[in-house]
Amino acid sequence: MLSKKMEQEFNKQINAEMFSAYLYLSMQAYFESVNLKGFANWMNVQFQEEQFHAMKLYNFINERGGRVTLAAIDAPDTEWKDSIAVFAKVYEHEQLVTSLINNLMNVAIEEKDHASANFLQWFVGEQVEEEANASDLLEQLKLIEGKGHGLLMIDRELRQRVFNAPAEAAE
Ligand code: FEO
């Protein structure tokens, strides 16, 4: 059984993951508007991943006898100066999400809730990957100054990205 405090914190994280999904969908729309289909595809995969994160939390709350309560999702930004500005925001946002996951882990430890701490380990690992993906792309974009042939090359590469739900999705 989840404590009320833990339940509240997990519900807040569902909202943060849904906001992340919304933010990446907004970034997808931005890239569609400037005809960078590969970047738009990358954002769509990110959008799906964030929904997966939210549902993983949703399922865990239910599994532990808690109650899911959904709150309003903030509106994301809709315009960015260029692709570098977008990925600077992605990287910054993922660092924020990492801090939220770390806080959740701290609450689980304070509450001596080992099941929640064990569950959150997956998110700790996932955030390492999320930050690395954002940072790698940001650095590549900076190298080519976010334009020209290099930008089109990266765009072509990003068309290949597909969403693969981790095995736990089938649970
Ligand atoms: Fe759900 Fe991108 O962290």
Would you give an account of this structure?
The protein is an all-alpha fold and 171 residues long. It has a single domain (4-71, 80-161), classed as Ferritin, core subunit, four-helix bundle (Ferritin, Up-down Bundle). The chain has helices spanning 4-33, 37-63, 83-110, 114-143, 148-158. α1 (4-33) runs antiparallel to α3 and α2 (37-63) packs across α5 (148-158). It starts with a helix and ends in a 13-residue tail after the last helix. The model has no long low-confidence stretch (mean pLDDT 96). It binds MU-OXO-diiron.
Summarize the structure.
It contains 5 helices and no strands.
Which ions and ligands are bound to the chains? MU-OXO-diiron
The number of domains is 1
CATH topology: Ferritin
* CATH class annotation: Mainly Alpha
Please describe the structure with a list of short key phrases separated by commas or semicolons:
74% helix, binds MU-OXO-diiron, 0% strand, 171 residues, Ferritin, mainly alpha
